[in-house]
Design goal:
The complex is a heterotrimer of chains A (98), B (237) and C (550). By secondary structure, chain A is an all-alpha fold. Chain A is built from three helices and no strands. In chain A, 71% of the residues lie in helices and 0% in strands. Chain B contains eight helices and no strands. Chain B is mostly helical. In chain B, helix 3 (24-59) packs parallel to helix 8 and helix 5 packs antiparallel against helix 8. Chain C has a single domain (33-517), classed as Up-down Bundle (Cytochrome C Oxidase, Chain A). Chain C has helices spanning 2-10, 29-33, 38-66, 77-96, 99-113, 121-143, 157-161, 166-193, 206-238, 251-262, 264-284, 292-305, 321-333, 335-349, 358-381, 383-389, 393-423, 429-456, 470-500. Classes of the chains: A mainly alpha (98), B mainly alpha (237), C mainly alpha (550). Chains in contact: A-B, A-C, B-C. At the B-C interface, helix 1, helix 3 and helix 7 of B face helix 8, helix 9 and helix 10 of C.
Chain lengths: 98, 237, 550
Amino acid sequence: MSDHIVSWKVYVAVFLALGVLTVLTVVAASYDFGRLNLILALGIAITKATLVVLYFMHARYAGGLTGIVIAAAAAFFFILVFLTLSDYTTRSWSLTGY
Amino acid sequence: MSEVSSRPGAAASPGPLQHHFADLKQQKAAASLGMWVFIAQEVLFFGGLFATYTVYRMTYPEAFSAGSQHLSWKIGFFNTLVLIASSLTMAMGVHSAALGRAKRIVAWLLATIFLGSLFLGVKYFEYEEKIAPCFGLGAGPGCLVPGERFDASVLHVAVDMAPQTQIFYSLYFAMTGLHALHMIIGIPIILWIAHAAWRGRYSAEWHTPVEIVGLYWHFVDIIWIFLFPLLYLIGTH
Amino acid sequence: MNQGTEAKAMTPEANTLPKEHYLNAGYGWKSWLLTTDHKRIAILYLVSISVMFVLGGLYAALIRWNLLVPDGSHMSAETYNRVFTAHGVIMIFFFLIPSIPVTLGNFLIPLMIGARDLAFPRINLLSWYVYVIGAAFTLYSLFSGGLDTGWTFYTPYSTVFAQSNVAFAAIGIFIAGFSSILTGLNFIVTIHTMRAPGMTWFRLPLFVWAHYATAIIQILGTPVVAITILLVALERLFHFGFFDPARGGDPILFQHLFWFYSHPAVYIMILPSMGVISELITCFSRKRIFGYSFIAMSSMAIAVIGFLIWAHHMFVSGMSVYSAMIFSALTYLVAIPSAVKVFNWTATMFRGSISWETPMMYVFGFIGLFLIGGLTGLFLGNLGTDVHLTDTYFVVAHFHYIMVGGAIMGYLGGIHFWWPKIFGRTYSEWWGRISAVLIFVGFNMTFLPQFLLGYLGMPRRYHAYPEEFQVLNVLSTAGALILGIGYLFPSLYLVYSMVKGEPAGNNPWGARGLEWETTSPPPAHNFERTPVVEDEAYAYDKAPREAFGV
C-alpha cells in the first residue's frame, strides 16, 4: 500500500465524470437502440466502476497484488456467468438436425 | 505474566502496532490486502445474484422491461448522484487522513454518513410504496412483493407474463436489499472510525482503518453503479 | 522408530516439556474462549469439528444399520431421508470443509512461515464463533423437524414441497460459510505479508501452498453458495420466485449456482490433505520431495480448473447437452494436476529411506484410496457412462473414496504427525499402526461393495432395495463397523497421550521445517526470535537446524 497522495482536484474531476456518465446512461436509455442499449448501459457502468476503482480506491497507485486480486474476482465472476450461459444459450439447440 | 509474555511488543510500543507484526508497513499491507480480498469475496457474493439476473433477463426480456418501467428512474437517478457524492466525501476523508488532518476526517466522514442515510431514506420510501399495499385485508392493488399477494395489474402486462414479472421483483428486492444491508452495516463502522479520528487515533503515518473503510464504501457504490441501469433503465423510457 | 531415537540422541534434553508454552500461558475458560492465539483457536476448532464428526458418524451408522435388510424396515422412508441428509450436511459443511485448514492449517501456517500469528487474530477467533453459531442453527433444524432435502438442497423440493425445517438449516449453512471465508482470507493475507526473512514463495512448505490454493477457493467460491442458499431461504420463507417453475423460474439455475461452489468444495477438502501428504512423504522417505514446484503449481491448477467443471454433477438434470459436452471435456483436465501430484509422491519414495511410522501408514492409505477415487471420477465425468451411473451407489462410493479415503486419511495422518508438536507428547506407535490398518481395511470393506452395487444399478438415497443386493450391503455395513472401531482407537490413545504421553522433544521425527525449530508445544509467541530461512524446503540432505525456541 503506497501512501501516494493525490490532489483533491483529481477526486472532484472523477466525481464530475461519474455525474456526467450517470446523465449519459439515463439519456441513452431514453432512445431505442435495440440490443445496443444493454451494451451501452454496461459499457458506461464498467467505465464508472473503473474510475472508482482506479482513483477513489487508489488501485492505480497500489501494488500489482491489488490488481491481481481485482482481476481474479472479475475472472471468476465471468467464469460463473459464461459457463452458466453455455447451458442457457444452447439448451434449445436440436440434437438431431442441423 | 501470561498476558505480558504473549504480547512482547505491547509494553514496548503502545502505539497502533499490533504485537504480531514486525512494523507498521507490514501491518498496513496486511490490512489493505485483507480488505481487497474481502471485496473479491463480495464480488462473487453479489455475483451469484448478477448471474441469476443475467439468465432471467435473457430469458424474459419483456417481463423485465415491464417491471423496470414501473420503477421510478428519477428516484434511481437521484440516489445514484447521492451515492457517488458520498464516494467523493469518503475519498476526501481518506485524503485528509493521508495529510494528517484529524478534524477534516471527521467532517468528511460525517458528510458521507449523511449522504448514505439520505440514500437509505429515499430507498425506504421507494420500498414502502411497493410493500405497503401488501398488508391489510385482501391484496391491495400495487403490491409488488413476490408471493401470493403480488399484483401485476399496475405493470400493464399480458396475463401470461405476469408471473415472470415476479422474478424481476424478486431480484429487485434481493439485489437492492442486499446493497442497502451493506450500507446499513457500513454507516456505523464509518461512525466508529469518525469517533476514533475525533479522538486523534490517526496520523499521516497510520490511518489504514480510514483507508479500508473507504475501500468498502466505494465498493458498495460500485454495486449501485451496476444496479441502477440494470434495474431502473430497461426498455426505452 | 529409529528416527525417533536418533532425534533423542541428538538432543538429550528433549525429554522434558518446555517450562512455558501456549497451553500453560493462561488458565480458565476466558483464556480459551477469548484467545486470539492461532494455536489455541486451532484447539477450539479441533474440539468442535470432532464433536461434529462423531455426530455425523452416528448418522452414518444409522444409514448402514437400516440398509442391513432389503425392506429397510428399521426406519421409515421419511426418517431415512432425514438421517442421510443429516449425515451429509454435518460431514460436509461442519467437518470436511473446515477439517484440516481450521485445525492443522490454523496451528501450523504461522509456525511454518515463521510468523507470530495469523494476520488477523481476532478475525480468526470470530470465524470460530461464526462456525459455532452456524452449527447451532443447523443442528437445531436437524433436531426439530429434521431436514430431508439431501445436503444439496435441490429446488423446487427444498423451496416448495419439503415438509422439514429447511430454512433454519439453510441459514445455518449460510452463516458457517462466512467462517470458511474468514479463514481463507486470513490465510491468504498471512501467506502474502507475514513470511519470515528468507522464506521466499518457492521455499514455502507445500502444506502452505496447498492452503493458499484452498483459500482461493474459499474466497471465490463460498460467497456464491452463500447467496444461493440465502435465495432458497428467501423463497422458502417469503415466497420469492427465483427457482419456482410456476413463475418461470428455473430449478436448474439453482444447481448451477450450487455446484459452482460445491464442486470446488471437494478441492477445499482434498487440497489441504494433499498438502499434508507432501509433508509426510518427504519426511518418512528421508529425501527432498521430488518436483517441488510441480506439486506447488498443481495445487494452484486444481484450484482454478476446479471452477470450470461443476456441471458434471448435472448431466441428467435437463441442462443443454452441448454445454454438458464442454463440462465433460473440461472435467478431464483436473486429472492432470492430480496425477502430477501422485507421480511426484511416488518418485519421492523412489530410493528413499522409507520408514513405517503411523503418519506414513496414512500416507500409503491416502495414495491408494485417492487413486481409486480419482480414477472412478473419470467414469462419472464421462457423459456416456455417467448416464448409467448417476445417482447410484457408484457415485456414493466414488466420493467417499475422495472425501474419506482422501481427505480424512490426510487429516488423520497430519494429526498423528503434528500431534507431538501440538501437545508436546507422543502416543502409542503400536496402537497408531493398528488403527491405521483397521481404518484402511474397514474403509475398503465399506465402500468397495458400493462400487459394485452402483454398477449393478442400486440407486442412492432409498431406504429399501431389491433382495439380490443384500450380501454386498451386509458386507458394507460390516466394513463400517470395523471403520468405526478404527476411528475409536485414535480418539482414545490420543486423549490418553495428552495426559500421560512421553514428552516428545522439539523434533521427534527429525523433520525439516520451521515448526520443528521451536519447542513442543510452542511458546505463545511461537519463536523466541524471528527465524531466518537459509535453505530450500525439505533439506533432508542436511542436518536439522538448531532450534530457535529453546
